[in-house]
Amino acid sequence: PFERRIPVHPDHFQLINPYLRSLLYIERNYSIDYGVSDSFYENLGCSVMDRDELIMSADCTLLLKPTPLDL
């Protein structure tokens, strides 16, 4: 519950090919703890959704540290 690291640092999203970024779905408030807003990802072409929306709409979901609430 106290883990604050994120799998992809916000600075690295700009290195991802723009077309591939347009295919990415980011969880709302993904990096809010780092002072990075959702609009940062939207301005890069990523889609931002709530966790429930992401899980329901995705063909494949990668949860690095799932909690009982995720199941």
Write the layout of secondary structure elements.
Elements: H1 18-21, E1 25-27, H2 38-43, E2 47-49, H3 51-57
Give descriptors for this structure:
3 helices, globular, alpha+beta, 71 residues
Describe the structure.
- The protein is of the alpha+beta class and 71 residues long.
- 24% of the residues lie in helices and 8% in strands.
- It has three helices and two strands.
- The chain has helices spanning 18-21, 38-43, 51-57, and strands at residues 25-27, 47-49.
- Strands 1-2 form a two-stranded parallel ribbon.
- The chain starts with 17 loop residues before the first helix and ends in a 14-residue tail after the last helix.
- The model has no long low-confidence stretch (mean pLDDT 87).
Order of helices and strands: HEHEH
User: What portion of residues belong to β-strands?
Assistant: 5-15%
Q: Output mean pLDDT.
A: 87
Q: Report the count of strand segments.
A: 2
- Helix/strand-derived category reads alpha+beta
Give me a quick take on this structure.
The chain has 71 residues and is an alpha+beta fold. It has 3 helices and 2 strands; from the N terminus they run H-E-H-E-H.
